[in-house]
Design a protein that fits this description.
The chain is an all-alpha fold and 110 residues long. The chain is built from 4 helices and no strands.
Length: 110
């Protein structure tokens, strides 16, 4: 699911943007465009989103991080392929070669 011709971190300037900053920018843009509350498991399309509103969200995210090359394209692609908030953040970070969070350990008997 990578943009054609790109590998992790190739041709992207990601200086100064980390996962937390990206998640805040995405959450704020998603919330403002759809006028909804956004949680990790929020589904963009179930909350009334469309490809047009996804483009608006992607543009707003990119405007908050003008030093990140192609962030609007990467964000829009992620939003078209994924619907759940946390999955969109994961997809964007993966495209930029950013480390993913460690998975939670499986719950077991204590």
């Amino acid at each position: 699911r990578r943009i054609a011709g790109r590998g992790p971190g190739q041709d992207h300037n990601v200086a100064g943007v980390d996962r937390a900053q990206l998640a805040v920018s995405l959450r704020d843009a998603w919330r403002d465009v759809l006028e909804v509350t956004v949680a990790a498991d929020s589904d963009f399309y179930e909350q009334g989103g469309s490809s047009l509103t996804a483009a608006e969200v992607a543009t707003r995210v990119a405007e908050r991080h003008p030093d990140v090359t192609d962030l609007d394209i990467v964000t829009l692609t992620a939003m078209l392929e994924e619907a759940r908030f946390e999955s969109v953040v994961d997809a964007i970070c993966s495209e930029f070669g950013a480390p993913q969070p460690d998975p939670a350990p499986p719950a077991g008997p204590e």
